[in-house]
Every structure is written in C-alpha cells, then in structure tokens.
Specification:
The protein is α/β, with parallel strands linked by helices. It has one domain: Glutaredoxin (3-Layer(aba) Sandwich), CATH 3.40.30. It is built from 5 helices and 7 strands, in the order αβββαβαβαββα. The protein has a 5-stranded mixed β-sheet. It has a two-stranded antiparallel sheet with strand order 1-2. β6 and β7 form a beta hairpin. The longest helix has 20 residues. The radius of gyration is 19 Å and the shape is globular.
Length: about 170
C-alpha cells in the first residue's frame, strides 16, 4: 500500500531542522560549546605563566591567530579596545599564536602594543580546541570556564561584542 504524500509544510520543516543541525555541527565540529574549555598552561612572550584556570571568574576571549593571517591583524585593534574597555568588568583577552617561530610574533606584538597576554601554541593545544585549521578562531569562555561561543574566521565585531556583554553582566 502506498503511503500518502507528506504535506509540503512538514517537508519544509524537516528540511529546515536538518539544515539547522548541519549548521550547528559546522560551527562546533569538536562539540566544545557549553563544555569546560580545555585547560592549558603556557608561558607568555613576556615570560609570565599563563594558566587558563587562573582566569576562572572572568570572561575570557581566547583567540588563536598568526602573524601571516590578515583577518587576525585586522581584529587586533578591536581586541586591544575591548581589553581596555571591559577589563574592569571582568574581560580578559588571551592570544595564542600558531606561528612556527616566536620572533616575528614578538616583533608584531611590540609594534602593535598589545595589552593582553600572547603565548605560543602548538599542535597539541590546537587539537584540544578542535583541530584548528583556519585562523582566526576565538572562543568566548564564561565565568565558570565553559565555552559560550566559537567564532571562526573573520567575524563581524558586533557579533562578538554582543556575545561578550551578557557574559560580563552575569555574575
């Protein structure tokens, strides 16, 4: 016996749900969203110990970048501004360079007068955050250490800032 055809509205709804699930999977392929951010300890370019656990209670914008990444360089002034503007509200920007050599990173961070810790990353740290392949990639981490948002590639600054503000307001 043949089954009656599904009404077009039901098919449209099913298609919309499948597309939404696919979009969600692409934006968070490692399944890190709403989970504790992978812990790490690094040494900043200034020689200070940076332990992600030390920032619990703050909102952290953790960005992976490189000196050769044009969108990464474009977002730097914005990160400096946010660190200045929202530091007293509890924001901490942390940057992990995926460059192979620290010298160009040191030169660029000095030239740009970055006001947040910068450290060198490696394949293990990139893997812990979902096998980072394209840059920049930023993780917005809430005050409890959970990943609240992931921003991949060149992202509209108002999108990121609209993610930061409610987390800063939540105590």
């Amino acid at each position: 016996m043949a089954h009656p055809a599904k009404p077009p509205r039901v098919l449209a709804l099913l298609l919309a749900l499948v597309m939404l699930a696919a979009a969600s999977a692409q934006s968070d392929p490692a399944g890190l969203l709403h989970r504790p951010a992978p812990r790490f300890q690094r040494t900043s370019l200034e020689g200070r110990r940076v332990d992600l656990a030390d920032y619990r209670g703050k909102v952290v914008l953790l960005t992976f970048w490189a000196t050769w990444c044009a969108p990464c360089l474009v977002e730097m002034p914005r990160l400096i501004d946010w660190q200045n503007r929202y530091r007293s509200d509890g924001l901490q920007v942390l940057a992990v360079s995926l460059d192979d050599d620290a010298e160009p990173v040191r030169a660029l961070t000095a030239e740009r007068h970055l006001n947040y810790p910068v450290m060198m990353g490696d394949a293990n740290l990139a893997r812990a955050y979902g096998r980072i392949l394209g840059l920049p990639v930023s993780f917005l981490i809430d005050r409890h250490g959970k990943i609240a948002a992931v921003y991949k590639g060149e992202t509209d600054p108002t999108t990121i800032e609209s993610g930061i503000k409610p987390l800063l307001a939540a105590h």
